[in-house]
Design goal:
By secondary structure, the protein is an alpha/beta fold. It has helices at 27-36, 73-82, 98-110, 124-129, and strands at 2-5, 7-10, 14-20, 25-26, 61-64, 67-68, 89-92, 118-120, 135-138, 143-146. The protein has four helices and ten strands, in the order ββββαββαβαβαββ.
Length: 147
Amino acid sequence: MKKFKGRIVSPGSVTAPALVSHGGLNTLASFQKALQFGDKKATCGDQNNADLYGKQMAGKALCLPRTIGSTTGGLVLYCACAMHRQPACMLFSEPIDSLAAAGAVLADVWLEDVSMPVIDSLGEEFLNYVKDDMTVTVEQDGTVTVA
């Protein structure tokens, strides 16, 4: 078990199984099936992300370095939350980009029945340590425990 401390982008606490990507998350390509075709498990549709492609993202602690892709990234995250197809939390090893941050913050502020804690700046050691299906706990103070 190891603890990491990051910066709180969107507050909350949750425990969920880890889903890890060592490459950037293309939000539009990854969530397209969930948003357009009714995939409630949010199966990753980004064929360029070998770590995530074909895996369920909804309800998982999504651990990643950064998001990549188009300017729709924030809207995609917001819509995934609005449709209840979001990860349990998003945990970034690097500082979050402004588009992903906007989507997470808007979902936190505008959606009353949705929670998706987002923590960034957890560091490279975090991403090297966490593996798929490890148990990840996010605390209100931005502490992330991986067991």
